[in-house]
Amino acid sequence: MSAPSPSPAPGRNRKVLGRLSLPERTFVTDALRTETVGGVLLLAAAIAALIWANTPIRESYESVRDFHVGPASLGLDLSIEHWAADGLLAVFFFVAGIELKREMVAGDLRDPRAAALPVVAALCGMAVPALVYTLVNVTGGGSLDGWAVPTATDIAFALAVLAVIGTSLPSALRAFLLTLAVVDDLFAILIIAVFFTENLNFAALGGAAAGLAVFWLLLRRGVHGWYVYVPLALVIWGLMYNSGVHATIAGVAMGLMLRCTTRKDEGERRSPGERVEHLVRPLSAGLAVPLFALFSAGVAVSGGALGEVFTQPETLGVVLGLVVGKAVGIFGGTWLTARFTRASLSDDLAWPDVFAVSSLAGIGFTVSLLIGELAFAGDKALTDEVKAAVLMGSLIAAALSAVLLKVRNAKYRRLWEDEERDDDLDGIPDIYEQDNPAYHLRMAEIHERKAAEHRRLAEVTGGASEENDGPA
What we know:
Layout: E1 15-16, H1 22-53, H2 58-65, E2 68-69, E3 78-79, H3 80-106, H4 112-140, H5 155-165, H6 171-195, H7 202-220, H8 226-243, H9 248-257, H10 272-296, H11 303-309, H12 313-340, E4 344-345, H13 351-360, H14 365-375, H15 380-407, H16 409-420, H17 437-460
Parallel strand pairs: 1-4
Antiparallel strand pairs: 2-3
Helix pairs in contact: 1-5, 1-6, 1-10, 3-6, 3-9, 3-10, 4-6, 4-12, 7-8, 7-9, 8-9, 11-15, 12-13, 12-15, 13-15, 14-15
């Protein structure tokens, strides 16, 4: 498990979006690698869904999506679309719970001063889109039920966009985006739990709570074995679903219970939470989320339907919330945090870089689609229109951020190359060793060895290489 990032220096010396510690950088790199692959699969699934739902075989799409399966006696006779939204996304939120726990005990959220930036940025990045949606619908006479739709950020989709456009975003900005998405997921979970829970079944809810207590007790006692936890997790999920609380809350709760700190006295190299996340994250990013997208993103996108996205207050509010609200909210929250904590932006970055990443967070695909389904559950036509608005808003945000990031990509590439350079070939980037005397000694030996090689080459060639002699 990675060690916590060093605490920021107090006062005016603290830097916003400065270089990560080496352990934190390693963790972020590994996590984002999986999310990027998952994001590409997510894009592919979304495109497949749109093609499937907008071709002559669209009836087969609707037949598969609406096909019911599951034990009715347990209240689980659900459509494939429903299984994807309530079942598969529970895996996604389980990983989100582990990420949140890790951030709180070993990551940026561990230090209150370091946590202030992503928390305030995420809160502003959710409040401003909700405000934009509300203003558009109050003035346009639309429904306020969808205020939460544009509040979410899809980290996998955002990273897929970065992979497609080929930008060499510095690790500090990638880590900021990841932490921002983790906090964003937390508040999205709270929104789903508080605002989209109706008709509670207290018996089922009590059973789910008892199951969670058993889950926690087994973890505390150090019980091992997937054959214990997987069946228990399925029971907890089923009870949570039947309680009336959205079933994904069960995934988050179990993720938060995992221990995400290492016990050095027991020789642990990775915490249980990190080991489980390493196993489950590929399942979440590579299967659960793409399948959800496949059965949720299939909406009609004819020219007329796309035109209506910009004429109806509900859909226009979603588009403007994602494109304008997210960028303004996150950028404004970051600037205000720096302003009132007397911190300064990292010397390697400029405020336009922060705005570009803020606009990238306007890609709100997965959770926005889920909230759209919950917000307009009684109106199938409006649900599809809001889904089309989520797709359009995410596409516009992706295009805008791609342009803004490409403008600065030459600088990003230089920063990335500096972060990756390892001239002494010890497996540690040189930028993390510059204050270490042993590093300078190794580099002096390397330069001396290269100089000796040049001298020997000059002697063999009769001095023909003397003009090129010297350290490489």
